[in-house]
């Protein structure tokens, strides 16, 4: 289907008052994930090397915390300037990413002394949140959101000896990430129409990725501590998943909505001791609903990786895990059969594809 | 933008931003272009996802059960359970129409279950076999089923099994208690095995294999390029020898030429770019050994410059690919 076909269809449906001519519209630079991945990895390595050169050149000065902090601010400001004023050049935007990474490393080194891990993580999270707001670049905002969530997760997961009431903080953080991801995905067209794409899109995608990344180690830790938080996390993930399914099927008859919600609730119940599977399924479904195929594939891989990690978790015996997995697998086959029986496919619309 | 440009998310977003479409119009445009899934796409997706997830979970359930090694269950019962599951998977696949998702999933489940059967045999009869032998036999025994399924996902699983087997062989035999990625012979073997499989997949697989896109080819390219880059790193620091150096350079050059000139694949070329930049950095480190601050700065600027150049090149290639696909359509 071409742009012209879509515009003509929109005009026919009276969504566009007049037929648009796409000739005047500039094309957006392609943001294919693997090119961004290449730039991100290399920007990070470039940042490390720049910090290395700096450390070797003026190593004596860098022992002073204030000097490191000043250079951190200078690097980050230089990165911001490059993004703002020189963003037409790919080299300069890549240089900006590396300079920002160098600044972040220097900031980290400047706050390391006399602070515990949680404090350092919280300072870093604050810096990353500020960078998400300030840096006008998709890749930078994506990376900073990922780092911010991981830093907060690290701070929340640290030992809570002095504040036992915060023991479940990582659970609530992960649920907040899941809710944020689902809400941003559900309102995608609204924030795009409001001109918030530059900020909201990288944040949404990063929340999805960090939910997959933080899910697995988080569950492993909880599995060794107690059952209650794991159950709480699974229950909350399941609530988000069921709520999203119910909302997503809002155009369908009530019976269908209830059946769909019941089906995902059953699957969630079957793997309540493996919340990583529920998180993976949540990200997979939401990503597919928004046409984000790469995130969907990442969720599939994360779910597979979670199954591998489940083997080593100590919270339950291998026999219990085996039974839970067998039950979930059988339940999925049952749901698949029910979907085929009560919601038969209508391939006549897409005969070309079904063949 | 041309009016016959494909209705991709990027193009639709560009036009929607430029003409300031409201949220409802944006949503409808994405649905019309089938960027957002319709009812049929949902059905197909759910059908496939549930089947694949169920297969993975059932296979994992059997593996976990065998690993539990419950004393209350006799050895014959255990063997009957696992082999019964294996036979059931094969019969299920045989009863389906050939090359349907259900038959392919059945063969994939059978492929995955061969591992637990071999592990159980080794555990029960104390055969004394090394773990690499288990993986090697697993790969050899399942090759016919994987070939029969003609499914890229099943081939990807087989490639992983074969690579793990090879990794364990070099870790156990050549470098006990080590990891084969620190062994130059192991790296060279990984490069050659995956390179040869990639060549076979390109020569015979493209037309006869089923599944989305070129997942098998891309996985093999990733494994080949990773192994070749490490081989190069070893060789250039005088631990791998000239043969390893030549092989890694030849393999990288062949992949670059193949996917740029013969069969354009921008994703593989992106991997190739990362491999090439890594090789350049390794060469620089060797050439300017002990260069101090200047060396770090030089390498940093080289990384930034090369990655920016690679991104520009890849974006241009992507446009070329899209234009040629549009022309072909």
How would you describe the overall organization of this protein?
Chain A has 355 residues and is an all-alpha fold. Helices cover 76% and strands 0% of the residues of chain A. Chain A contains 15 helices and no strands. In chain A, helix 4 runs antiparallel to helix 5 and helix 10 (227-248) packs antiparallel against helix 11 (254-270). The two termini of chain A are 18 Å apart. Mean pLDDT of chain A is 82; it is low at 220-228 and 348-355. Chain B has helices spanning 9-19, 23-32, 39-68, 75-95, 101-125, 131-149, 152-174, 184-208, 215-236, 242-262, 266-287, 293-328. The mean pLDDT of chain B is 85. Chain B is mainly α and 329 residues long. Helix content of chain B is 81%, strand content 0%. At the A-B interface, helix 1, helix 2, helix 4, helix 8 and helix 12 of A face helix 1, helix 2, helix 3, helix 11 and helix 12 of B.
Helix and strand layout, with pairings?
The complex is a heterodimer of chains A (355) and B (329).
Chain A: H1 3-12, H2 33-57, H3 65-85, H4 90-112, H5 117-134, H6 138-157, H7 169-186, H8 188-193, H9 197-225, H10 227-248, H11 254-270, H12 275-289, H13 293-310, H14 318-342, H15 351-354
Chain B: H1 9-19, H2 23-32, H3 39-68, H4 75-95, H5 101-125, H6 131-149, H7 152-174, H8 184-208, H9 215-236, H10 242-262, H11 266-287, H12 293-328
The largest β sheet of chain A comes out as: none
The coarse overall form of chain A would be flat
Give the oligomeric state of the chains in this entry, treating copies of one chain as homo and distinct chains as hetero: heterodimer
End-to-end distance of chain B: 18 Å
Mean pLDDT of chain A, as a whole number?
Answer: 82
Specify the overall morphology of chain B: flat
Query: Which band does the percent of strand residues of chain B land in?
Result: under 5%
Helix/strand/pairing category of chain A: mainly alpha
What is the distance, rounded to the nearest whole angstrom, between the alpha carbons of the first and last residues of chain A? 18 Å
Write the element-wise H/E pattern of chain A from the N-terminal end onward: HHHHHHHHHHHHHHH
Secondary-structure-based class of chain B equals: mainly alpha
Order of helices and strands of chain B: HHHHHHHHHHHH
- Cα-based radius of gyration of chain B, to the nearest Å: 24 Å
Percent of residues in helices of chain B: over 70%
Strand content of chain A: under 5%
Q: Which two chains form the greatest contact, residue counts included?
A: A-B, 90 and 93 residues
């Amino acid at each position: 289907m071409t742009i012209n076909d879509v515009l003509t269809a929109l005009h026919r449906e009276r969504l566009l008052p007049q037929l648009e001519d796409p000739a005047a519209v500039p094309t957006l630079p392609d943001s294919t994930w693997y090119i961004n991945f290449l730039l991100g990895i290399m920007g990070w390595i470039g940042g490390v090397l720049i910090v290395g050169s700096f450390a070797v050149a003026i190593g004596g000065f860098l022992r002073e915390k204030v000097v490191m902090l000043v250079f951190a601010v200078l690097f980050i400001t230089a990165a911001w300037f490059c993004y703002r004023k020189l963003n037409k050049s790919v080299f300069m935007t890549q240089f900006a990413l590396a300079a920002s990474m160098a600044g972040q490393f220097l900031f980290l080194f400047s706050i390391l002394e006399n602070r515990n891990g949680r404090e350092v993580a919280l300072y870093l999270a604050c810096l990353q949140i500020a960078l998400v707001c300030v840096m006008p670049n998709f890749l930078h905002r994506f990376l900073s959101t990922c780092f911010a969530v991981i830093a907060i997760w690290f701070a929340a997961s640290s030992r809570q000896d002095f504040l036992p009431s915060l023991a479940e903080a990582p659970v609530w953080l992960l649920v907040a990430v899941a809710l944020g991801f689902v809400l941003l995905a559900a309102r995608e067209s609204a924030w795009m129409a409001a001109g918030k794409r530059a900020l909201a899109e990288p944040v949404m995608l990063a929340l999805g990725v960090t939910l997959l990344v933080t899910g697995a180690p988080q569950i492993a830790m909880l599995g060794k501590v107690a059952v209650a938080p794991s159950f709480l996390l699974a229950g909350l993930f399941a609530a988000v998943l069921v709520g999203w399914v119910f909302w997503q099927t809002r155009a369908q008859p009530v019976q269908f909505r209830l059946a769909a919600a019941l089906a995902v609730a059953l699957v969630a119940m079957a793997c309540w001791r493996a919340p990583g599977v529920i998180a993976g399924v949540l990200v997979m479904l939401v990503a597919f609903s928004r046409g984000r195929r790469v995130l969907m594939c990442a969720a599939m891989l994360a779910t597979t990786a979670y199954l591998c990690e489940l083997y080593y978790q100590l919270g339950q015996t291998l026999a219990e895990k085996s039974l839970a997995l067998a039950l979930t697998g059988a339940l999925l086959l049952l749901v698949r059969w029910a979907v085929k029986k009560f919601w038969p496919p209508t391939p006549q619309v897409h005969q070309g594809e079904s063949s | 933008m041309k009016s016959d440009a494909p209705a991709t998310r990027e193009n639709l977003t560009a036009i929607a931003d430029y003409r300031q479409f409201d949220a409802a119009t944006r949503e409808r445009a994405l649905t019309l272009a089938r960027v957002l899934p319709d009812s049929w796409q949902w059905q197909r997706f759910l059908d496939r996802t549930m089947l694949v997830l169920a297969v993975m979970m059932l296979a994992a359930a059997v593996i976990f059960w065998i690993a539990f090694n419950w004393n209350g269950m006799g050895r014959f019962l255990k063997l009957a359970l696992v082999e019964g599951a294996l036979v059931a998977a094969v019969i299920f696949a045989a009863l389906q129409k050939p090359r349907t998702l259900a038959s392919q999933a059945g063969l994939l489940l059978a492929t995955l279950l061969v591992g637990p059967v071999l592990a159980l045999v080794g555990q029960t009869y104390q055969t004394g076999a090394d773990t690499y032998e288990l993986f090697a036999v697993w790969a050899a025994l399942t090759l016919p089923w994987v070939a029969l399924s003609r499914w890229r996902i099943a081939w990807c699983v087989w490639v992983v099994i074969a690579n793990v087997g090879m990794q364990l062989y070099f870790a156990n035999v050549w470098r006990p208690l080590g990891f084969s990625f620190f062994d130059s012979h192991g790296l060279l073997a990984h490069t050659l095995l995956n390179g040869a499989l990639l060549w076979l997949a390109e020569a015979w697989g493209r037309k006869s294999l089923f599944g989305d896109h070129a997942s098998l080819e891309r996985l093999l390219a990733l494994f080949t390029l990773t192994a070749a880059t490490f081989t190069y790193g070893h060789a250039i620091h005088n631990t791998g020898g000239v043969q390893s150096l030549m092989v890694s350079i030849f393999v990288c050059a062949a992949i670059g030429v193949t996917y740029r000139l013969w069969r354009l694949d921008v994703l593989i070329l992106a991997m190739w770019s990362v491999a090439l930049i890594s090789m350049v950095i390794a060469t620089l480190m060797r050439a300017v050994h002990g260069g101090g601050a200047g060396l770090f700065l030089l390498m940093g600027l080289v990384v930034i410059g090369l990655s920016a150049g690679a991104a520009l090149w890849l974006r241009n290639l992507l446009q070329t690919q899209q234009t040629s696909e549009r022309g072909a359509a």
